[in-house]
């Protein structure tokens, strides 16, 4: 056990040094690009396993073809894009803008998704919910627009560095769309020196039309932080026990300031297609950057007594 702690500490120290390096060599950049392409291929392979996956992939191919020579979306093209839904339900996501750039050293593929609310098909549908949905999607769209605009600005600023390399990607994925909830995931990858992925989650309660906060899932006043956090720690220990290559910052006195203690009200989450709570962490949040973005599915038994 003592030897494992020393090895973990050495690994963490090495990760810190790698992360703090000011720049990447061209060979490292090429390796990074290769890993990104492999990840894309794997994702496409999984999508092809279902009819819906094939349908989404086909729509995405049309989108890419439409923007292959257009770094910014025109008003007419944007209107046409709104006719290509990603998934059904009360809320749908479309690619509003696809910014592309590649000169061999600087590469960008930045999608800006936009949420829209489908028109009510019945008079019985709650008009208040519809109004809330419109306001919520408008708020989410504004946040996403601001974020992607900032990334594009940072990328274009980096073009001034003739010797540097940078890779920026923004993609989106509809994680779940049920009769109760809709979740959009925004995947942002930025590499300029060292690289990192940051994910953003936007979950809408379709019963109220409002954006869902973690606390909204539980009985008012209930302590959900403790049981969820303890379950995550248990899953971390089990994963590390099964695989020595899995490393989380947990129970290690040598890096006590990094050790995971508990989630917060602001911790990212979503509800999967089975209605289970999934807690999400970005790279470097609870383990070395090499662990990537990690997720923990919380068993219904853990929160059954306090879940609404």
UniProtKB/TrEMBL annotation:
Keywords tagged on the record: Membrane, Transmembrane, Transmembrane helix
Region span, Disordered: 112-133
InterPro entries referenced in this protein's UniProt entry, alphabetically: DUF3298, PdaC/RsiV-like_sf
Superkingdom field: Bacteria
TM segment ranges: 52-70
Domain spans labelled DUF3298: 215-299
The UniProt record lists the keyword Membrane: yes
Record-linked Pfam families: DUF3298
Name assigned to this protein: RsiV family protein
Organism: Maccoyibacter intestinihominis
